[in-house]
TrEMBL record:
<dbReference type="GO" id="GO:0036064">
    <property type="term" value="C:ciliary basal body"/>
</dbReference>
<dbReference type="GO" id="GO:0035721">
    <property type="term" value="P:intraciliary retrograde transport"/>
</dbReference>
<dbReference type="InterPro" id="IPR027417">
    <property type="entry name" value="P-loop_NTPase"/>
</dbReference>
<keyword id="KW-0493">Microtubule</keyword>
<dbReference type="GO" id="GO:0045504">
    <property type="term" value="F:dynein heavy chain binding"/>
</dbReference>
<keyword id="KW-0206">Cytoskeleton</keyword>
<protein>
    <recommendedName>
        <fullName>Cytoplasmic dynein 2 light intermediate chain 1</fullName>
    </recommendedName>
</protein>
<dbReference type="GO" id="GO:0005874">
    <property type="term" value="C:microtubule"/>
</dbReference>
<keyword id="KW-0969">Cilium</keyword>
<keyword id="KW-0966">Cell projection</keyword>
<keyword id="KW-0963">Cytoplasm</keyword>
<dbReference type="GO" id="GO:0035735">
    <property type="term" value="P:intraciliary transport involved in cilium assembly"/>
</dbReference>
<keyword id="KW-0970">Cilium biogenesis/degradation</keyword>
<keyword id="KW-0217">Developmental protein</keyword>
<comment type="similarity">
    <text>Belongs to the dynein light intermediate chain family.</text>
</comment>
<dbReference type="InterPro" id="IPR040045">
    <property type="entry name" value="DYNC2LI1"/>
</dbReference>
<dbReference type="GO" id="GO:0005930">
    <property type="term" value="C:axoneme"/>
</dbReference>
Length: 322
């Protein structure tokens, strides 16, 4: 498959962004955030983004039926009508390909036209546990930067729209007012969910204690960023149901009966809603400190990057001596 050149990616991005901006400008202040919601799935290559989108839209699809990998930026949509409502909520679903060149396309789904009703989903490949924390930190930083820029642009061009967003952010912040770890928590500017995919591979190939500690690390990151955390597998029905329940609530405001599913048994795929976890429940890494740096270093110790082999470098340096 031919590679997508940077210029082609930029042209593609600017074309769609211009169209979105035009549509956005035609809306009135009252309707701009009423019935449309945008969600972006992002993550590394082959982390399961497209499969999650596919299973959300088509719940009965066979697990063996694998969708084609996303090349640049894929778009789908879903509509949902709540009981007693004459209107339907339209969800714009974007799936960003894992190539680094595609990061230039973030401005399409994350913009002043969408940030008022935006959900972000970061997918992590649990079959490569060494990559989970580095990829999570990368996307948290990248997405926060894009959201902040979009909010600044919205503030300049549409003050009423910004008031709507500020009200939503205030509600999220107030939900942590009584949280025991409120001093640690900096909620993301928009709703965020972290998906850990391929749980079945992690469960079959990784020592239970290491698996538990990876789950604890991801719980910590979800807690401090105000995110939902869902670990899942296409082969695990309960985790797929949890994934759909979280997305239905975030996109359509449909709360499952009895609330969102919570599963904190580390021998199974973890599922915990934003704000429902705590440092006390998660526990501490080996350093005894509840910080992202401590968890990052603990994960580097448990899951060293297999591509980093310092002994080979030493061996090569020794050969140069002869």
């Amino acid at each position: 498959m031919a590679k997508v050149k940077k210029k082609e990616v930029d042209d593609f991005s600017s074309g769609i962004f211009a169209r979105l901006t035009e549509e956005y400008g035609q809306r009135s202040a009252g309707e701009e955030f009423a019935n449309d919601v945008t969600i972006l799935f992002c993550g590394s290559k082959k982390s399961g983004k497209t499969s999650l989108v596919d299973r959300f839209i088509n719940p009965t699809k066979d697990e063996k039926d694998q969708p084609k990998a996303t090349v640049a930026l894929d778009y789908k949509f879903a509509r949902y009508a709540t009981e007693g409502s004459s209107s339907k909520v339209l969800a714009h679903i974007y799936d960003l390909g894992g190539d680094e060149a595609n990061e230039n396309l973030l401005g399409v789904p994350v913009s002043k036209a969408t940030v008022g009703n935006l959900v972000l989903a970061i997918t992590l490949d649990l079959s490569e546990p060494h990559s989970c924390v580095p990829n999570l930190e990368k996307w948290l930083q990248l997405l926060r930067s894009h959201v902040d820029k979009s909010l600044q642009a919205l503030a300049q061009e549409n003050p009423p729209g910004l008031l709507h967003i500020d009200a939503q952010r205030a509600l999220r912040a107030n939900s942590y007012a009584e949280h025991p770890d409120r001093g640690f928590i900096t909620p993301f500017p928009v709703p965020l969910v972290i998906f850990g995919t391929k749980w079945d591979v992690l469960a079959s190939e990784v020592d239970p204690e290491k698996r538990k500690n990876l789950s604890r690390a991801l719980r910590h990151y979800a807690l401090v960023h105000g995110a939902h955390l869902v670990l899942c597998s296409l082969k695990e029905k309960a985790s797929m149901n949890a994934m759909r329940s979280v997305l239905r609530q975030l996109l359509f405001g449909v709360a499952p009966k009895g609330g969102l599913p919570e599963q904190l048994d580390h021998s199974k795929p973890v599922c915990v809603a934003a704000g429902k976890d705590s440092v006390q429940s998660i526990g501490l890494p080996s350093s005894g400190q509840a910080s992202e740096r401590a968890w990052r270093e603990f994960m580097q110790h448990l899951f060293p990057d297999p591509s980093f082999q310092p002994w080979k470098r030493v061996q090569q340096d020794c050969l140069r001596c002869f």
